[in-house]
Design goal:
With 272 residues, the protein is α+β, with helices and mostly antiparallel strands. It folds into 3 domains: 63 residues, Winged helix-like DNA-binding domain superfamily/Winged helix DNA-binding domain (Arc Repressor Mutant, subunit A, Orthogonal Bundle), CATH 1.10.10.10; 92 residues, no CATH class; 97 residues, no CATH class. The strands form 4 sheets. A 4-stranded mixed beta sheet has the order 4-5-7-6. A 3-stranded antiparallel beta sheet has the order 1-3-2. About 2% of the residues have low confidence.
Amino acid sequence: MRRDQLLRAILEQGLVVFSIDEARSVAQQEAIPARSVAPLLMNLSRSGWVSRLRRGLYVVSEPVRGTASAHSFTIATHLVTPSAISHWSALHYHGLTEQIPRVVTAFTPRKVVTPGMRRPAATDRRRKHAWTIRGVRYEFVTVRPKYFFGIEQIWVDEHSGVSMTDRERTVLETFISPRAFGGMGQAIGVIQDHLDSLRTDKLISYALRCGTVAAAKRLGWTLEHAGLDERDLAPLLELSSSGYHLLDPVHPRAGPRERRWMIQNNLGGPWH
């Protein structure tokens, strides 16, 4: 059957997650008419061999001929392109936290429109819009294009490579968006526990490239308290600031002001 022929050819090319355009390309190689692809995919979906993730995007539903099901990171980075696994998901993958994320998070420079956003009234406006597929929640954070850097390719299985923020870019995000991590405790903890495994020169250059003074000052303050040499911190110290930045924006504005870093330490005392 053409249906089985198409599915077999898709799997032979390692396309566990695939677009309808990729299916058409495979069909052409198999001498299957392009007009037949959409009906064949519909048939495969009804038969339970593939599932539709969104319009024009499919995933193989069940292991076929020993092929493993799609990794959640592969699904995430196909749902929105371009995107990269980030935040808690990247933090855990890189071994920078023992906390197992309950959702798969990726960031993207694109504006994301999820199925929930198309509904007239969301049941809970406080929750982030996301896809939920096979019981896994996928959340996307839209960032400015200038923040979409520090990305590497990792392999999650023998067929699938996905984009992910590298270790230093992942750590920097905890300083840029501490609210997303429940406060600065996570950022400080990562520096305390993993400073020796981080390239601090890259981390500092990323902070300068990002151009967010508050994040750069928080990072510099934290690195200094972790024992990094002042010569390495000079580029961060030299950044001009028009005012004091809260060490932790999750907590109230209180505590001593430290002019050296233009930081207001609102975490209840010095950090050691």
